[in-house]
Design a protein that fits this description.
By secondary structure, the chain is an alpha+beta fold. It has helices at residues 4-7, 12-20, 24-42, 52-67, 69-112, 117-121; strands at residues 127-133, 136-144, 147-155, 166-170, 173-180, 183-203, 216-225, 228-237, 260-265, 270-281. The termini are far apart.
Length: 286
């Protein structure tokens, strides 16, 4: 059934706005103005065209309907209530679509558990990877096709050197050489905070310019040194649902130069955990 407001030509956007502000009296004033503009044009004494008389009486009925507070509320509901229903239906449909997309992505990454990580990483046996992770390092140990462990690291320097010459895997641990005043030093990376993960893909370095969210979180923590509390930053990954990870559309099945490694944890969440700097087979342990 046609709304009296619609008959008088009051735009839907105005009705929605005035309803949101609770100004139904203002709506009536707008309708009265529209009536005063239209009614004279269709008055039987002025307009003798066929159908004009019928329009005039419909305009009269519409304004009388709106002058009744209950009639005005009903007219508002008829005009915008249906739009609300359509909008709500669209929201429900979009929510269902997002849920299905989320389920599909989870199912896809569940299937990736069956893909051998040795094949993904192009290695032939248990391998340890040293990763560049923001201003820090992480270590990824892949011990089997279906077993990998991610480690955060600490080191004996508060800040990593700007440049290191090479990384070595000695006795099951990573270290890097750097020079200070032409003197050679070794920076030892100590594994901490282990997490079981699965390698699921790689993000090309050039895709990082499309980054929309932070993938690394910096936590400031206190440590005691010489009896004094010292604040130092600690880098930790940001874990994200597959459907919310900005980098999913850029992911590739094989690493390229400086690409970022994406892993999945036991909760099904994804994270970028660094770019590969060096790798070594476990049988190189001393």
């Amino acid at each position: 059934m046609e709304s009296s407001l619609e008959l008088l030509g009051v735009p839907r956007d105005i009705v929605e706005f005035e309803r949101s502000t609770g100004s139904l009296k203002k709506l009536l004033a707008i309708a009265e103005g529209a009536y005063k503009l239209l009614a004279p044009k269709y008055h039987p004494d002025v307009n003798h065209q066929p159908g004009a008389k019928e329009i005039f009486f419909r305009l009269n009925d519409a304004i009388e309907d709106l002058r009744d507070p209950d009639g005005l509320e009903l007219a508002v509901e008829r005009l915008v209530g249906e739009a609300d229903k359509h909008a709500n239906r669209r929201r429900i449909e979009q929510s269902i679509e997002r849920k299905r997309e989320k389920q599909s992505l989870r199912a896809m990454f569940d299937l990736l558990v069956n893909v051998g990580q040795f094949s993904v990483l192009d290695v032939t046996g248990p391998t340890s990877f040293l990763l560049q992770f923001g201003a820090s390092r992480t270590i990824l140990d892949v011990s089997a096709n279906d077993q990998a462990t991610l480690y955060l690291t600490s080191q004996d320097l508060e800040v990593l050197p700007e440049q290191t010459e090479r990384a070595e895997f000695i006795g099951g641990h990573w270290r890097e050489m750097y020079l200070t005043n032409e003197v050679k030093h070794w920076l030892n990376h100590v594994p901490t905070k282990s997490s079981p993960v699965t390698v699921v893909g790689f993000v090309p370095a050039q895709a990082l310019r499309y980054q929309t969210e932070e993938t690394i979180q910096v936590i400031h923590q206190e440590r005691v040194e010489l009896g004094e509390g010292v604040t130092e930053p600690r880098m930790v990954p940001v874990w994200t649902e597959p459907s919310e990870a900005w980098y999913v559309r850029f992911m590739m099945p094989k690493p390229t130069q400086s690409s970022e490694v994406v892993v999945r944890n036991h909760r099904g969440l994804l994270s970028i955990v660094g770019s590969i700097q060096a790798q070594a087979f476990f049988y190189e342990k001393q």
